[in-house]
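Consider the following assembly input.
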Amino acid sequence: MSSVNETSGTELTPPIERIPAAERREQILAAASVVFGERGYSGATTDQVARAAGISQPYVVRMFGTKENLFLEVLARALDRLITGFRQIIAEPRERGDDEIELLSARLGAAYVDLIEDRGILLSLMQAFISGHNPVIGAKARAGFLEIYRMMRDEAGFPPEEIRGFLAEGMLFNTLLAIRLPDVYDDDEAAAELMRCAFRGKLDVVLSATAAAPAEHAGTQTPQQ
Amino acid sequence: MSSVNETSGTELTPPIERIPAAERREQILAAASVVFGERGYSGATTDQVARAAGISQPYVVRMFGTKENLFLEVLARALDRLITGFRQIIAEPRERGDDEIELLSARLGAAYVDLIEDRGILLSLMQAFISGHNPVIGAKARAGFLEIYRMMRDEAGFPPEEIRGFLAEGMLFNTLLAIRLPDVYDDDEAAAELMRCAFRGKLDVVLSATAAAPAEHAGTQTPQQ
DNA sequence: AATTGTTGTAATCGAATGATTACAAAACTC
DNA sequence: GAGTTTTGTAATCATTCGATTACAACAATT
């Protein structure tokens, strides 16, 4: 009657590694970020996430309850990371000076490189942002984007008011472009370089225009101060 | 015997209107554009498209073969409409003059209003652009976006070269924002007005910067010509 | 070494969905 | 008005997928 599972010597089925739940949770979230980003919320399956995380599908469902809940956690983390990253850059102390543009450009570019390093985060965010059918997911994604947009627009404290929205748009759109225009942004390194240039270019333009036309509708005014 | 379907006087089941296949095809494509845009490719069902078009699900499948094929037709039409619209605006003859900025801004803004009138087109396009899993759909969407981007960047013939990419990005990103940021772009009319202002603002910046810094890295140079 | 909790899977269920088949009815042709 | 084409649906099939259940193996506690 003794069950014959004492294959002590040879291990036929490689014993899967048991790791703490908290650690496994991180693996699942990381895998889900990639899978959701690539296939979209509806296109992704819990089994794909599970395989990407190296475990079985029922575990994923039991750990997060539902697929929607899993996605909401991925989304919350993506937003948190994006917002925190941008806020840090903005909050960094700056001195006004000649190399001001160069320094800020470099920092913004570096932030982008970090964020785009795992595209799954941005892709998941974009998916949630665009998708209109699930009210909970859509509302959270749009609220998060709005926060980033307003933060860049209102709190950057760098370019003049009329042009902050302009810069904020540029940052977000660069993100989108960098995700899926391999012909424009060749590889990751090229994308990083291009983004640094893009920011420097934007800031150049913004500051030049400011110097040329201080506050009102820019006509053919003489440069002032 | 004689089949009893001669309910000549009263019509219990309202006789569904039979219309030519070509016309029905247009209805289905219009409905599919909305449904795909709202739910994404994977999230949309052929039955939802059928109901939105006022017919039964098997008809949709039989007319387009597969769901993927239906989406590809929606995508092709969206790209065609976008590219055609932008190309027309760019190709329109312009005179250089004082109100040059005002005129081009108005035209770009009007084009946006037209395109955003049915958001389904843009949403479907964005879904396809972002989604990475289906190679055929993704490749077509990205190729189309790239064509628009390059057209705006290379053929606009209006702003100086260094800044055309800047303007092209702005156009595309404004599209994205207008789709799903109701707190920023309140209603459709407000969105239209905001977009006109955005373009005017962008062109103001671009042209001012050009006047201030003709070709090289914008330093503190004196305006020339 | 029992007990108990943690970490994991196999099996399977029910609903959703793309696709197919078979059929019906209107409209057109001769 | 019989035959043919066009326009449409009801019924249903096979697959997929999220979720559930039941169970196994390992680890910690006592």
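Residues 1-14, 180-186, 202-225 of chain A have pLDDT under 50 and may be disordered. Ask yourself how this observation constrains the way the partners meet.
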